[in-house]
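Q: Give me the 3D complex with pyridoxal-5'-phosphate.
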Amino acid sequence: MNNNYTSTRDKNISISAKNAIKKGFADDGGLFVYPELSQLKIDINKLNNLNYQQIAEIVLEKLLPDFSIEEIKNSIDQAYSISFDTTDITPVVNVDNFHVLELFHGPTSAFKDVGLQMLPQLMKHVLDEDNKVMILTATSGDTGKAALEGFKNLEKMSITVFYPHNGVSKIQKLQMQTTNGENTEITAIEGNFDDAQSNVKKIFNDQELKKELGPKVSLSSANSINIGRLIPQVVYYFDSYMQLVKNGSINIGEKVNFTVPTGNFGDVLAGFYAKQMGLPVNKFVVASNENNVLTKFFQSGVYDRNMPFFQTVAPSMDIQISSNFERLLYYKSGEDTGYVKGLMDELESSGRYQVSDEVLASIKEDFFCGFSTDDEIEDSISEVYKKDNYLMDPHTAVGYKVMRDYQKTGDDTPMILLSTASPYKFVRVVAKSILDDVPEDDFEVMQKLNKVTNIAIPKNLANVWNLPILHDDVIEKDQMRDYVKSKVEEEFYDKD
Ligand SMILES: *Cc1c(COP(=O)(O)O)cnc(C)c1O
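A: Here is the predicted complex, encoded as structure tokens.
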């Protein structure tokens, strides 16, 4: 059996999982994918009574064939032993006639922790003896802090995060500015998220800078297209299924549905991986906010990013190009890399592409797609809180709305709704949905919400207000290159 990954755009590329993690994406611009996923079958009967870490071991062993079992065990141990606030890591809660899979119990209270606690641990086993890596991340809020917590204090690695000066919430900004750790660098830029993102891309392609940084230092990213972030997310699909078996909600072998609040399509694609590997899943319900490029695609087979961009109350899903969707096109076209490359070239040149009827039909066999407006998000938060006494964050509420739309089609397969953030992380819109009167100050909003609902505030969010500000740099967007260079010198040369 071929144990290597390939590119979505060129099947002649063959690369080990370790090198795929190191590189991030392929030289041809494609994403790394595992061909013939169905050869990696997991027998769910063998998962009975295993805990999260044990299930993770089985999943990671399959998908990371060139990692030794010791490397995998060590990575799981480091990623998931103390940094989550529950030993279940991703607990399932029963609500009304569905189940909520809570993915927000990590150190930053958003689901990105599941991938970003693991990626740095895997990277540790990929670096050569005298390699040093500077991770560069542009963030619109959630990814930056989750990446900082994952890479904090690891040897041979440092991380620099750029965020738009006036483009993140107060809590998100505080979370980043108060980050401790020996190897963490954070700066605001005078510009928006796109400026941060495009300048980081430029820096990655800056050959002159590479020379200036010296032969031992490389730049890398913690982007969600890295398989080192995707693969850890496959685990909670298996684990949540086994939790339902354990609590008697389903019989082993019975099918379930998953609803996934979606932005870059990474989270739900991990579910598709689990299904290919043998998890009994009927449908994945893909839920977008008003940036509903994907919903339109499901209606027409046309993917068109030339649409107005909306800033919504579920900002972590404000995305027009769902990068990981390319991976689904690869599998759904029968692993036809020429076909995928054609579509992606069209997307690049005209901002749109159209898939064949067969590909669209095949996608619809596994997926249903819909969207929620901002008003509907607030209505959902309020409805579920009043009726079921469960408090959802706005991203989860997007999923809830589309899940209810899907259930109207008559499918009553047991449903797991993925919850991607703590309600306290996006506290203002949550409070607005259930309280008559919302204080001006976010800290007071948190306390009031806690008083009214009795739901505990995650420690990291309760404490963030009292921590010292350690990072208050603000730079112009054209200073980012020099900033990286000076931080590499500080981190890797001056410290030695
Ligand atoms: C990133 C994020 C999402 C979207 O996940 P994708 O993998 O990009 O589809 C949803 N909710 C929250 C809170 C997020 O941070």
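A quick observation: DSSP finds 20 helices and 16 strands in the chain.
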